Amino acid sequence: MGRRSIRCRQNAKDKQAVAGLALAPILALILLMVGLRWSAAAAGTVSAVIAAIVAVAAFQFGDEPADLAGPVLEAIFTAATILWIVFPALSIHEYQVRTGATGVIGDWLSSISSDPAATALLVGYFFAMFLEGASGFGTPIAIVAPMLVALGVAPVRALLVALIGHVVGVSFGAVGAPMVPLVEAAPVDERRLSLAILLLHACIGWSLALIVVKLGAMKSESRGGGGSTVTGSAANSSWQVAVMAAACFFPCAALIAGLAGPELPTLGGALLGGALFIVWLRRGSPPQIGEDAPAGRALLKAGLPYLVLVVLILASRLIDPLRNALRAYPIDWTYRQNFGDQILPLYHPGTLLLLAFVLTVLGNRSRPSLALTSMVAALRRLPQVAIALVSVLTLARFMVHGGLIDALAVGATGLFGQVWPLAVPLVGALGSFVTGSGTASNIIFADFQVAAADAVALPDWLALAGQSLGSAIGNIMAPHNIVAGTATVGLVGQEGRALARTAPICLAYALAGGAIVLVVGWAVDFLA
């Protein structure tokens, strides 16, 4: 018995040592970016090298030296798909700035309410979540951050708002894509699971609306002496406006989740909730907008790229024949059987963004030289961004293929023991931190979460709900999401500054979610 106890303790120490080695690349990335304020390109490159060394030396990754090229090829391919979103988004932004459209949109948003907190929520919360629900894949960050800068928000704050404001919607982003691996991992009812995820977010998600207001509310400035007719919201404190925004979004999203399932909670919740929020802002006020607000035709022209984008996204996601046709021509590749990836070029958000840009230029009858100048300006921002993306994605792919992610999850299970439910969202956050994708995090950890839940008698649906919450909040500190965002607001090289601000929020949110999962699990076990 004594020898068995010694062996068990030795096995536990071995598992802890392996988990510690697996954690080394992530710790290096955080230390270099947050502690030493290195750029993501430099920190990601060093951390990727560390991940490769650990994967080969400690986890026996790769049967042959040629296998080392697999994660790098996957990283390059994924980086290209992300850049395909960033480039047209930047082109639209450069075009909007050159035509003065951003100023027109700013005038209109200011005319809805004289309260800067309300303006921040309309752009950085509802519009960001609408984009996430319709498209995902980093589109909200690429579009919302530069819009906020144009409205007068400091670039760092605009980036943080874009990262944080859309995060609740990530659980059902891209018309429910992150939900697919969750419903495949266990025999759970997708509507019940969708509702559970939203209720879990609702318990703490209102705090993100407060953060959006704190970071995104710019000082009110008179535009030509005009005033807003919406005076009711100006008398409200910022926290009341933030809580009302959350109160408008979550019930609408929960109703849609319970009735229709996982495809439309974010998209529908943002549309319906945003409409209710505007109605609340206008309470007791005449329906007309401020005197200096732009005329309808000018506003339509300024908002044309976004209107076209909305129509394209809705049509491509919700009209089944069109959706199937756009998904019918995938581009995929494989390398040595274990590596590969796929892209749906016609269905990709970047393609829709580029099409929206082209249609806007044609619709406005703009000079071809103006469009070309905007695209060249966008292209000039891409090289350093591309290096950063490839480096952090290489880190991610070595951790996934080398088994480092699995080792970290096993180590976490042994560390938490019977209070494992507390760590469920942390695992989800770890996955999206490393991969930059809620969908990827769910793919990696869904089966693991179900197995761990069975070991501690936690309901599968509750474990998967916690995974979804964690994978959503983890996006705000994913390095390559931050890299893509910094590119749109001119902060390339300052990624560590953003990560230092988002990391505490991510950890606090995940831990709070874990506490709820733990308590609900206890309650379910008691009632059973």
Number of domains: 1
Q: How would you write the strand order of the largest sheet?
A: 1-2
Q: Helix/strand/pairing class, anyone? A: mainly alpha
**What is the straight-line distance between the termini?**
36 Å
Q: Evaluate the radius of gyration.
A: 23 Å
Shape: globular
Largest sheet: 2 strands, antiparallel
Spans of at least 5 consecutive residues whose pLDDT stays below 50 are: 1-10, 220-235
- The overall strand count is 2
Mean pLDDT: 85
Helix-strand pattern, N to C?
HHHHHHHHHHHHHHHEEHHHHHHHHH
Number of helices: 24
What labels describe this entry?
528 residues, mainly alpha, two-stranded antiparallel sheet
Walk me through the structure:
The longest helix has 34 residues, at 2-35. α10 (190-216) packs parallel to α22 and α22 (460-473) runs antiparallel to α24 (495-527). Mean pLDDT is 85; it is low at 1-10 and 220-235. The protein is an all-alpha fold and 528 residues long. It starts with a helix and ends with a helix. It has a two-stranded antiparallel ribbon with strand order 1-2. It has helices spanning 2-35, 40-57, 69-99, 101-112, 116-134, 139-150, 155-165, 173-176, 180-185, 190-216, 238-260, 265-281, 296-302, 304-318, 320-326, 349-363, 368-379, 382-401, 404-416, 424-435, 438-455, 460-473, 479-488, 495-527; strands spanning 331-335, 339-343. A hairpin with a 3-residue loop joins β1 (331-335) and β2 (339-343). The protein is 74% helix and 2% strand. The chain has one domain (70-219, 233-527).
